[in-house]
Specification:
By secondary structure, this protein is α/β, with parallel strands linked by helices. It has one domain: Vaccinia Virus protein VP39 (Rossmann fold, 3-Layer(aba) Sandwich), CATH 3.40.50.150. It contains eight helices and seven strands. Strands 3-2-1-4-5-7-6 form a seven-stranded mixed sheet, with helices on both faces. Strand 6 and strand 7 form a beta hairpin. Helix 2 (24-34) runs antiparallel to helix 5 and helix 3 (46-59) runs parallel beside helix 4. The radius of gyration is 16 Å and the shape is globular. The N and C termini lie far apart (37 Å). The structure holds calcium ion. Residues 44, 140, 166-167 line the site of calcium ion. Calcium ion (CA) is lined by residues 44, 140, 166-167.
């Protein structure tokens, strides 16, 4: 099933088939995660993973932050694009879910680039110096905390650094006047906040469940 509620299954399959497809290790992590059942929908879409791998390489990113790792698929997509001395700091609160991904990071030969911190991400981020030393960040965790993650990351990001934010269209609910659940309201507020923020440029890409690209000015 496509994560993009606005795409037909046929068009989604076409998009996946005409981008670089997941390799064998990535495919096996997708299958392992699918065994978890409904919760597996928290994994990013394969076409988003392809996009992230490409973007990390194109930007030449060396130091990347991730907020919300789940079973490690997005981390795998980022880490494989980092140089051998690159660094991905993953923030997650679940040892159970992230443990599923670790053997796949090993198999892909990228585990040495990944530093996983099991703690609330706001605490992990607050402990980092505000030294504008990170190239890129990916935010995909609890939606009401998106503004807090954004504010914690921005002073630590290099000028011209990029933040990717997932689920910003929330199955299209952000634009449905009658949708008023807490997550929809939180994402709408976040989207408005970054669109109005003079410190960043923002572009929403309708890939997966919607991903915002933010560039720090
Ligand atoms: Ca997500």
């Amino acid at each position: 099933m496509p994560k993009s509620a606005w795409l037909s299954e046929e068009l989604h399959a076409y998009i996946v088939a005409h981008g670089t497809e997941p390799d064998a290790v990535q495919q096996s992590l997708i299958e392992e995660t699918a065994k978890l059942g409904g919760i597996s929908m928290m994994q990013i879409a394969p076409e988003q993973g392809t996009f992230m791998t490409l973007l990390v390489r194109a930007l030449g990113a060396k130091r990347v932050l991730e907020v919300g790792t789940f079973t490690g698929y997005s981390a795998l997509c980022i880490a494989r694009a980092l140089p051998d001395d690159g660094e991905l700091l993953c923030c997650d609160v679940s040892d159970e879910w992230t443990s599923i991904g670790k053997p796949y990071w090993e198999k892909a030969g990228v585990a040495h680039k990944i530093d996983l911190k099991i703690a609330p991400a706001v605490e992990t981020l607050a402990a980092l110096p505000e030294d504008e030393s990170w190239d890129m960040a990916f935010i995909d965790a609890d939606k009401p905390n998106y503004p807090n993650y954004f504010e914690a990351i921005l002073p630590r990001l290099k000028p011209n650094g990029v933040i990717l934010v997932d689920n910003v269209l929330w199955s299209g609910n952000v634009a449905k006047p009658d949708a008023d659940d807490d997550n929809t309201k939180a994402i709408r507020a976040f989207n408005k906040k970054v669109a109005d923020d003079p410190r960043v440029e923002a572009a929403i890409i309708p890939l997966g469940d919607g991903i915002t690209l933010l560039r720090k000015k």
